[in-house]
Write a structure and sequence with these properties.
By secondary structure, this protein is mainly beta. It has no helices and 19 strands. The strands form 3 sheets. The protein has a 15-stranded antiparallel β-sheet, with no helix packed on it. The protein is globular. The termini are far apart.
């Protein structure tokens, strides 16, 4: 049994299982038209379309669980304590007790229209103008005995998100571009009143350069980007857990008031460096900080960065070599995916101590062997995570997800 920190809100580990009955239905429609027209002696392109999506989900949760994390009237000896790292499937199974007070019905609808226009302004300069007009509707009905405040809906109509890009082919082997787009994301999170928090809005800029060498057999690119996001959500420290007004079970109450900025650079190089050797290289460097970061009282906080649940530095490389044997029927490939460390952390609050869960930097190696005796058929073996590296693909304060272990895939293809 795990030893909790004295005086903290931590508890020992328990074996916990839940059974739920649910259903989900969805319908989608997407119509897109493409075409071109001549204007001022040049050919231009136009894309327009509409889309619509409807989805509903229904869920019933039992009043009692097989292994709940607290004592209950029906099973006062719950919870069942366990040793870390064990799962006792031989323990007596206690059936779920279904009751009338734990059901939810959540419908959602999104629809919109989009269009983009590509104009060739000169022989070397072209632009893309476009946007999307969207409407969002999220609703929810919950049994009043389970959640009184959570009933309601979120509706936002006629949201226009524009985008723009300009491309300049300043010589036959290189081009530069700049792009801009608006950001609008609906947050599936609720405040202390049971209402959805405001959507996240912002802007995204990108400036890049693309080049090619060796008669277009080798290409390279570099891009700088900046993303600003407003109404970033955070937990409401003044409310209990779980949030009594949230229609999402076992969730926090949230506030949307912080602002974040991300800046980065992307590098890529790919192509045929020799008649029998292909390569692909890429790297990403990123920096992120708060533009506005408030505490529970609405005052600025000193912290300038947030939980880095994704690596800020990545590197990837791959090589594909056609072996000089058997007339070039055999190919050997290999590469690496390397990431910097990432983590999630919390500061101390009341009896809850500070905590940090992290994954250090790591590298995953892959390999490939292929045989193609003729153009009609081929056999290829791919090995992912060749050295069976153990790592966390995702980290959180209460759980972690292991990365994919070593795996093999054998593929045979035949053309008729």
């Amino acid at each position: 049994m795990a030893n909790p920190v004295p005086g903290s809100a931590q508890v020992p580990l328990y074996q916990d299982a839940q059974r739920r009955l649910g259903s989900r239905n969805s319908r989608t429609m997407d119509v897109t038209l493409t075409g071109g027209f001549d204007w001022l002696g040049r050919r231009h392109d136009l894309i327009a379309g509409i889309d619509w999506r409807w989805e509903k989900s229904r869920e019933i949760r039992p009043v009692e669980y097989a292994y709940e994390s607290r004592p209950t009237p029906h099973y006062p000896d719950n919870p069942v304590r366990i040793n870390p790292g064990t799962l006792d499937m031989t323990a007596p199974w206690r059936p779920a007790i279904w009751g009338p007070s734990a059901w939810s019905f959540t419908p959602s609808r999104t629809w919109g229209a989009h269009a983009s226009l590509r104009l060739r302004l000169t022989d070397s300069v072209s632009s893309i103008l476009g946007g999307r007009l969207s409407s969002y509707h999220y609703g929810g009905r919950f049994n009043p005995t389970y959640n009184v405040v959570g009933n309601g809906a979120y509706h936002k109509s006629h949201i226009f998100t524009p985008f723009f890009a300009l491309n300049w082919d300043f010589n036959p082997h290189a081009s530069a571009y700049v792009s801009y787009t608006d950001i609008f994301d609906v947050n599936n999170a609720y405040d202390a009143r049971g209402k959805m928090v405001p959507p996240t809005t912002g802007t995204n800029w990108k400036l890049g350069l693309k080049t090619e060498w060796m008669d277009k057999r080798l290409t390279g690119s570099i891009a700088l980007y900046q993303t600003d996001r407003k109404n970033q959500i955070r937990r409401d420290p003044s409310t209990p857990y779980p949030c009594p007004a949230s229609p999402i079970s076992d969730d926090y109450c949230y506030i949307a008031d912080n602002r974040q900025r991300v800046r980065g650079i992307e590098l890529e190089l790919a192509g045929l460096v020799r008649p029998s050797l292909k390569i692909a290289l890429g790297a990403t460097l990123q920096h992120q900080r708060y533009v506005r970061n408030l505490d529970g009282n609405g005052n600025p906080r000193d912290a300038v960065t947030w939980n880095e649940r994704v690596p800020l530095r990545t590197f990837r490389a791959w090589a594909d070599w056609r072996l000089p044997v058997a007339g070039g029927a055999w190919r050997l490939g290999g590469g690496v995916r390397a990431n910097s460390n990432y983590f999630v952390a919390r500061s101390a609050s009341g009896r809850v101590p500070a905590a940090r869960v992290s994954q250090g930097g790591y590298a995953i190696w892959d390999a490939m062997l292929a045989w193609q005796p003729n153009p009609r058929w081929s056999v290829q073996l791919n090995i992912s995570n060749l050295f069976d590296k153990h790592y966390f693909a995702d980290v959180n304060l209460n759980q972690v997800s292991y990365g994919e272990p070593r795996s093999f895939m054998l593929t045979a293809r035949m053309r008729f």
